[in-house]
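3.2 Worked example (two chains)
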Amino acid sequence: MDEYESNTALDRTEVTRRTVIETGTTALLLTTLPRAVFAAGPIDESGPPPAPVNVELQINGHPHSLTLDPRTTLLDALREHLALTGSKKGCDHGQCGACTVLVEGRRINSCLTLAVMHDGQSITTIEGLAEGENLHPLQTAFVEHDGFQCGYCTSGQICSAIGMLAESRLGMPSYVTEDLTQPVAELTDPEIRERMSGNICRCAAYPNIVAAIKQAAGTPA
């Protein structure tokens, strides 16, 4: 077998759980990945950074003009440029939900989107929910049901819950919705847990969070 045939055979090698265990992950990847993967070489970051851009953000009802590196995430724009630190940076990979905010009423992970993508859009963070001394109903419910312990995930939990309740009122089903032909009649515990599954509470206050959301939704806890 010549070198070309040998490389082609390696490229066709099937990576299975057994081969990973038997061969060793590093050795297996080095021998089975196509040569083109390694041919690209390291990323060259020696060039000049991209030019700054002007961004107009409507945050909690107030306009903000920012000049940002176009690679700046919405989360970093909020925390580092506007000192709105209620939105937390947890995993920074969109897996924990601590950075959840509302954009035009829809919940998003602000660590996964660029600030420039939301030029002119209405953004609501945890700081914009209360009206003066009057807390948002979900904030009140979280306090009454002790829906937080360390509090790190709480801002994302509350913003996500607001977006989730809006989705349910629009009739949007979830993975556990039994009848997709009918609107969701009641936000049961399984419905709430599924719809909030993108928000992780490391203190495991999930029963209290569910109770708080059910109260805010008008459902007996």
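3.2.1 Second chain
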Amino acid sequence: MIRVLLVDDQAMVRTGFRTILESEDGIIVVGEAENGQVAIDRALDLAPDVICMDVQMPVMDGLESTAEIVRRGAAGAVLMLTTFDRDDFLFQALAAGASGFLLKTAEAEQLIDAVTALAAGDGLLSPEVTRRVIERSVRSPEATTSAAPELELLTDRELEVLHLVAKGLSNSEIAGTLFVGEATVKTHVSNLLTKLDIRDRIHVVIFAYENGIVGR
């Protein structure tokens, strides 16, 4: 059962999200919070698998709340939800440690898919948003063609998987490319996350582009 915490300052929005998510077998909303400060307390108490977090709220916004929740390890993953398709929100959310970013205008099925993906340990961004992340990383002054020290910890096979993850391939697509089982790919991805000290696939992609891994 995927346990979800809903964080939004509008009660009607929380009710709508609850209705959508609990219509799906295997998902249960275990709590709600009306601002980022309350969200921290609820996350610590409930340890949800996924937090659906609004960006703009009174008392404490979703970005600050997410950073604190991630720092404390109080939840499995944070999905940022907003009505604003703005790059500054996107990159601040990712920097805070969010594992996914979804507009509130998304279809109900997309919300369910997003929560399911994050609960499974996958990051989630739309292809368009992913492209913006990549372009920002490539243009960033921090981007470098030098190899990050952490790469020395990876095996040759893990480096192959890193390249394919960075190109946006799913586990099943990577399995087909490397002629291995999907379970083997999942193990390699898990090892990548551990060795690179990265939370999810989205941040693996950012790491790869910021460190000049893709295109070598």
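3.3 Remarks
The chain has a mean pLDDT of 85.
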